[in-house]
Amino acid sequence: MNYGIKTYLISLISLFSFVIVLGQKELPFKKEVEEIQAGLKDSWDISKMTIVFTGSSSIRMWKDLQDRFPGSQILNTGFGGSQSSDLEHYLDELILDYNPQQVFIYEGDNDINAKKSPRDIVGTLEDILEELKERKPDLDIVLISAKPSISRWHLKRRYMRLNKRLNKLASQTSGVRFADVWSVMLNKRKLKRDLFIEDGLHMNTKGYDIWYDVLKDYVNNNTL
């Protein structure tokens, strides 16, 4: 066989094999998302209006969400470590499959830590909002601001730029609101350090008390 043709065929086979392997590779968080779905299978009452809270670990670790909002059916589909691009892959599994009236989204925290620009993060969230609104036009969406934290305080300026863009995005998008949890976690310009557990990133009960005080005014309690 001509050497050039042989080399070409080997390259073609290698490329084809790579494409097959890439196609078989699981998306990040696939197993965790499946576990979330399985966990909600028995607790979700399809006959009741639903509010979904989703996003990264600050949502996932909010264990008493339903207890704090007893007047509504709350589903927590948070998946720890996720970025906005991860949520975009699972809009059906984590939001739309539950036909919610309202969804609270917390993404951007891990994106900033992963050195993504605020502009790129908001671009992904714009795509998410467009998809959600196209598929469920009456969905009420609340974008929760990025929170400050001890472990990521050195990135505060990037978080502040992100929150400014998120606020602007919400104000320019019908059916979308912005909930600011950044400002209330500060004492003037200093971080309230007693709101966090030992890792300096995730919140303790005091932190979630503050989140509740902000978000309770956004939750539609007339959904049951």
UniProtKB/TrEMBL annotation:
<feature type="domain" description="SGNH hydrolase-type esterase">
    <location>
        <begin position="62"/>
        <end position="210"/>
    </location>
</feature>
<protein>
    <submittedName>
        <fullName>Lysophospholipase L1</fullName>
    </submittedName>
</protein>
<dbReference type="Pfam" id="PF13472">
    <property type="entry name" value="Lipase_GDSL_2"/>
</dbReference>
<dbReference type="InterPro" id="IPR036514">
    <property type="entry name" value="SGNH_hydro_sf"/>
</dbReference>
<dbReference type="InterPro" id="IPR013830">
    <property type="entry name" value="SGNH_hydro"/>
</dbReference>
<dbReference type="InterPro" id="IPR051532">
    <property type="entry name" value="Ester_Hydrolysis_Enzymes"/>
</dbReference>
<dbReference type="GO" id="GO:0004622">
    <property type="term" value="F:phosphatidylcholine lysophospholipase activity"/>
</dbReference>
